[in-house]
């Protein structure tokens, strides 16, 4: 027999009578090929069909979840392989904990996190099943179908050995067994990726390569659910994915790579009980979308259900990879002209311009940075603001990207949100600049200078930079800007709502991993949407977003980055600016429309002195501040969706 290795473009591939989809009932699948002299071979185990595979002679009866790959062969020549996935929800929700042909152990446990009953160097237990604690629960069992249909699906299909072979041979080892900690780094395996949107009926299938993605998240002792990176190359298929995958109108429709983020920090997979407690899965997506809402470029994202050879693998966040190809697609020019830097160092091009940019910023040389087109000041300030606002504790010497075109530098290096997961839970008053986090390295040196303990260097000392910083802060922190309570809470709620139904399935797939499969620091609960995901979302919407803007404003005032508050924040015509008068220690407020009010009073040192609220829905309010000392204070008045700020001295 002749084994099939490569495709011949002249030979038409098989045609399936039904493309991949969710299937409500069994059906007969017909395969055909235009060339009457060609023979169709097919597989159902994910492997590439060859002349040793089953030959097609009659319709295939599909009555359960199946992945079918087919090729046409004539005179030793082979067509392109076509793959389709047929998903039966009744099968998926009872997914076997020990599927046939798949190993019961995955990657090697390192020593960073240790587990009772498992030695360092031993293989981690595998985890495949859908847990009946969720799928049979009265809250969820009638919502499972809707949960699957609530997001698009990506189905990855390949020879199982490409993921799960124990071989240490770089050309044969499985990437889910050897995740790149000691061996396996950079290993790439061929597969089919298929997109199935059950709502719009959109569908595509493309062949590509896949690698494990991530740093700590690839360590088996830290997570059993790994992230991936897809590579679209001509050696596999078309060379690029040509599809409008991200529905935002600003997104491109041609891709060399896609990153499939599993969720790690603040996810139910994390080794730390504290991270699991605060799991949300949407924090990085919120950061990227906030950066775009502030008027900047940022990678797009879209949530999907992921399957591997018909096995449900959970909710994934698909995002663009910040490579030189990505930069050229969005900022123009040729990819070879881009210098791309990240927290690990040089990612593409060379680092000469970046190092000079940091050096000039350390010495507060604002004029040369502008003149030599080394740093996009507006972008850098906005980028700093979004990470400060989110209280990002794992950023500074970690989790950032920057890029600049050497030939067409525009304003200079731009920074991009990336892996922005460890946010919010250090508290509404957490100060990224001074708190226990990772705000150091070049990002801090640009702002505050080379001395990691000083706040009196860098661009923060230049009057023009401080003026621009104040303008950008006014834009984003006041008057319904992207970082105001109204805008940020609305965006966060919208992003979270996208995955809310699907979280039921993430819970069924992975919510018991730290309880039943690889328990760690204490007895974990069965993580679920209604008991864990939704309460944490409600906590953020009630206790973080309403208060964080004001807290950040005062941190920026104290740091001298925000040099003044807007004396009056322009309001919409339907709700014109409030009038504020002071007389005999009292604040008299007149609103154009009835509303409750909150007034916070701060000293010039930015510390909160007093907060008063008036619950009356009225146009006239009077607050008593006669107890304050006679000195300068700053007030923040919040009424309806608007705010006004100013200075006063009690009489």
Can you put this structure into words, describing what you see?
- The protein has 651 residues and is of the alpha+beta class.
- It has three domains: 73 residues, Immunoglobulin-like, CATH 2.60.40; 422 residues, no CATH class; 84 residues, Immunoglobulin-like.
- Helices cover 23% and strands 26% of the residues.
- Strands 13-14-15-16-19-21-20 form a seven-stranded mixed beta barrel. Strands 2, 5, 6, 8, 9 and 10 form a six-stranded mixed sheet that branches. Strands 26, 27, 28, 29 and 30 form a five-stranded antiparallel sheet that branches.
- Strand 26 and strand 27 form a beta hairpin.
- Helix 6 packs across helix 13.
- The longest helix is centred in the C-terminal third of the chain and has 15 residues.
- The N terminus is likely disordered.
Determine the structural class based on helices, strands and strand pairing.
alpha+beta
Strand portion: 25-35%
How far is it from the N-terminal to the C-terminal residue, by CA? Answer: 99 Å
Give, in spatial order, the strands making up the sheet with the most strands: 13-14-15-16-19-21-20
Low-confidence stretches: 1-5, 569-576
Largest sheet: 7 strands, mixed, barrel
Mean pLDDT equals 93
> What's the alpha carbon Rg, rounded to whole Å?
28 Å
Query: What is the overall number of helices?
Result: 17
How many β-strand runs?
A: 30
The number of domains is 3
Helix content: 10-25%
Q: In one word, what is the shape?
A: globular
